[in-house]
Amino acid sequence: MALHRRLAALWRNLLHRQGAERELDAELESYVAMLAEERERAGMSAGDARRSALIEAGGLEQVKEDVRDVRAGVLIDTIAQDIRYGARMLVKSPGFTIAAVIALALGIGATTAILSVVDAVLLRPLPYEHPDRLVVILHHGTDPVAPANFLDWREQSKSFAAMSAAEYWTPNLTGADKSEKLWALKLTTDMLPMLGVHPLMGRVFAADEGEPGRDHEVVLGYGLWQRRFAGNAKIVGTEVTLNGEAYTVVGVMPGTFRFAPFWATKSELWVPMSLASQSTQRGGNSLRIFAQLAAGVSLAQARADIAAITARLRQEYPGTNGDVRVVPLKDRVVGDVRPALLVLLGAVAFVLLIACANVAHMLLARAAARQREIAVRTALGASRSRIVRQLLTESVLLGALGGVVGLALAALGIRVLVALGPSSLPRVETIGLDGRVLLFTLAVSLLTGVGFGLVPAMQASVLNLSESFKEGGRAGSEGVRRNRLRSMLMASELALALVLLIGAGLMIRTFVALQQIDPGFDPRGVLSMTVGVAGSAESAPGRRGPFYQQMLERVRALAGVRSASAINHLPLAGDTWGWAYWIEGQPLPKPGETPTAVYRVVMPGYFKTMGIPLQRGRDVHESDAMGAPRVIVINEQLAQRAWPGQNPIGHRISLQKPTSDSVWMTVVGVSKNARQEDWAAPAQAEVYLPVLQNRSYLEDDGAHVAYMTLVLRAGDDAAAFAPRVREAIWSIDRGVAVSEVQTMRQVVADATAGPWFYLLLLVVFASVALVLAAVGIYGVMSYAVTRRTHEIGIRLALGAKPSDVLRLVVGQGMGVALAGAGAGIIGALVLTRLMSGLLYGVRASDPVTFAGVTALLCAVAFAATLIPARRATRIDPIQAMKNE
Length: 884
What we know:
Layout: H1 2-14, H2 20-41, H3 46-56, H4 60-92, H5 94-123, E1 134-139, H6 147-156, E2 160-169, E3 172-174, E4 180-181, E5 184-187, H7 191-195, E6 201-202, E7 217-220, H8 222-229, E8 239-242, E9 245-252, E10 269-272, E11 287-293, H9 299-316, E12 324-328, H10 329-334, H11 338-369, H12 371-379, H13 384-420, H14 435-460, H15 465-468, H16 473-476, H17 480-515, E13 526-532, H18 544-556, E14 563-567, E15 578-580, E16 582-583, E17 596-602, H19 606-610, E18 614-617, E19 631-635, H20 636-642, E20 652-654, E21 665-671, E22 686-690, H21 695-699, E23 707-713, H22 722-730, E24 737-743, H23 744-751, H24 753-787, H25 789-797, H26 802-831, H27 847-873, H28 877-883
Parallel strand pairs: 5-10, 7-9, 17-22, 19-21
Antiparallel strand pairs: 1-11, 1-12, 2-5, 2-11, 3-4, 3-8, 6-9, 7-10, 8-9, 13-23, 13-24, 14-23, 15-17, 16-20, 18-21, 19-22, 20-21
């Protein structure tokens, strides 16, 4: 033990000396050799004498271990000392600390918030079993499939462990105080087992529950169970009434379950689907197909399998099975938003880099002001690595503080993002700060601390001691390399800011172009709501037509209502059905080439109520009823396609393949093109049929024809009419479901919500970047003027005019700014191509945007440079030389 204490004391004494460990080993070996020599003189062999000496010495390895423990303890003490000292230095400079922490917090907070969205939407696997093996099989990758085609694919394919189908369903839940229209899905019974999500209560569908007569079971969503059934724990086994029919509840899904994740996303109950009656139907496409790849089967193999099957079916059934694509389910879920989120992630990364460059400026200036302190520590024996470690400790502390504040900003930012995010943003309910995001924030905080602190620390640790201790050393110690580094940092900030500003400018141009789109209707003062008759007395054949007419009469009678009508699917906010049509007197198209049009049915007065101009002919009339000649209104797009250069009024069109008993409808009106499904998409051909001549909407029992969307035109505050309109409808029958109440202004706003959301974020990030860059250039130039006070004083004393000094300082600042702008333009030309899919009505390389944004940035840089430059012109030469 005496030896241990002696060696430990030696280590403490030699800890900071070069070669201390070698001296320790030499001392230990000398002691062991002395003991061995004594034992050899006593008669031991040389080997036994050494082994005995090592045992008495306590073992060479044990001694070294003790010494390493001492060394580690000293290192920990040193690091703790660095942290305490660094914290004191930051507290002594509160202005510097607050400015640096705010800059870092903005960058880290914005990055963390956007990464939380990217992680939830793009990176996390879908919450199903084997999510990487789930695919969708659809026409063109987006369009539904006919039942017979699905059954053939499932039977003939060899690449899938399971293949299931889903169909959209909108039943009315009745049997309570008021009916409610629900969003639901009909599923083949193997769908939920394929997804591998177990119910919270009860079970999913049995295999035979999709057979005819065994399809009246229902699985409830968690939200519906809580909202309409108060979370009744005994709900399983009870009956609910959907469209007037009894369904037995067999299960309740957990609160995290969402299906389907890219279509019918509001679905909150599921029932089994029977396809027995549709097994030969190769038209009326309504199914979305989901499948799970078999183990070991690649996506390419599955695509080849489906391609071979559909090629055979096209030969057997011409005009069917065209362009069938197998797409990973996750790609289908996130495909539309992936480019936008990646652009936003790149934008916040730029903000973080600008913040780091800004803090690096500040650290360089701070290090220059601490030259005397660093020189004293160096003169007292501190090594360069010791100085660098101390300065890095301070920058890491800044990064940690920035991370803590940034985390709070990120939590707030995520709430804002979720609140403002468009409805098209998938998986929004999963966005939040989780363990992975917290680890990311910690890593970013530490890395940014090292990143922005390393170069200033290395620069500060290189000193000329004699210059540093001179009275005038403050001015003379500024090196060319340090000035060049500041200029590079300032130019990089401006370049990054310019890229962000150009991106924001392109999105502003896009949004302006979108706002200038003519929707084809006047949304001002229009209120809409869906009225469903399924499950009520009004659903009976013979009662729907009179009910719709009576509903419109009572709504039109309300004070302030100017007009009212109804349509099956609302423009932009409703479903879009494609329907084949044939033109009388024109050759029949080849199989698979039959043109289609968007299918609408309307009540009289629809075009007047919606403010859709009729270019030719007339609106639908009350006289266009059953027994009267069949009529149809078409839009301009269909008129130009079917009868180019002709007047289509009086021509006839059929929605059935022409036969001897086909129903032909006479064109009585041509309406202006109206936006249909996508705000920015070109108009499609569209037909409008009178409801009162449509037997399906008056008599069929399908849920898809058991509702209409009421539209009414009132004053500017159309939403205020909703309660009175509901009561007017319920005064006829309280069993009717009224839902989806919204103004057409809201519909238009929702249609442009995605571009507005991305524009808002890019503008915010670009503004933050511009402010940080402006503060950075102001700080650098202000610091440069302070450091050059003596030089400027001499220039003025030798006869330089204030305007000469102004040009000198502004010229140097603007030179760096122009270099940064040049680099930014090159970067923007490359990077803005990545956001081409987000743009509308403007090119990614739009010269007007590039020129305008560059001029704005240069103006800001000029203003930030001019302020310190004007201060330089007011320097008193005598006082400046005295101070030096």
